[in-house]
Amino acid sequence: MTILLLSLCLGFVSGLRTFTPLAAVLIRRGSVWGIVLAVAAVAEYVVDAMPNTPPRTGAVGLTARIISGALVGWLIATLHGGPGIAGAGVGIIGALIGTYAGYAVRCEAIKRMGNYPAAITGDLIAIGLAALIVTR
């Protein structure tokens, strides 16, 4: 059960930021690919802050988040000796929840504090959650 909860939570982070949870898991495991994905995550933070970036609920953004959720869910489940398929499925569910919840919160945050502070806050939340989860 704990393994699937980790998959769900990292999937949720995939819904917030596509590359962050994958980078966190792979960095924690000492993989060079974690560094590559961390660079991709930083690029995502920059692009995400731009006002004309398409919404995460659009076809491309949503597809990327679902794939990320599936991969990170599978990865964290198998790393903990659990079922990869179940982890992937739960990761997808988490990614969908994170995508739509994150979108709603981001829209409200933009109204209250503006685009850039809302984007930076979202980045920090995603980084913090991913770091917290992968250390469990």
Draw up the topology in text:
Elements: H1 2-16, H2 20-28, H3 32-49, H4 59-79, H5 84-113, H6 115-134
Global outline: globular
Largest sheet: none
The domain count comes to 1
Strand percent estimate = under 5%
What's the overall average pLDDT, rounded?
Answer: 94
Give the termini separation.
Answer: 14 Å
Tally of extended strands?
A: 0
Proportion of helical residues: over 70%
| Helix-strand pattern | HHHHHH
* Low-pLDDT ranges: none
Question: Treating each run of at least 4 consecutive H or I residues as one helix, how many helices?
Answer: 6
Taking all Cα atoms into account, the compactness measure Rg is 14 Å
Class by alpha and beta content: mainly alpha
Characterise the protein shown here.
This protein has one domain. Helix content is about 85%, strand content about 0%. The mean pLDDT is about 95. The radius of gyration is 14 Å and the shape is globular. The chain has helices at about 1-15, 20-30, 30-50, 60-80, 85-115, 115-135. It is built from six helices and no strands. The relative contact order is 0.22. With about 140 residues, it is an all-alpha fold. Helix 5 runs antiparallel to helix 6.
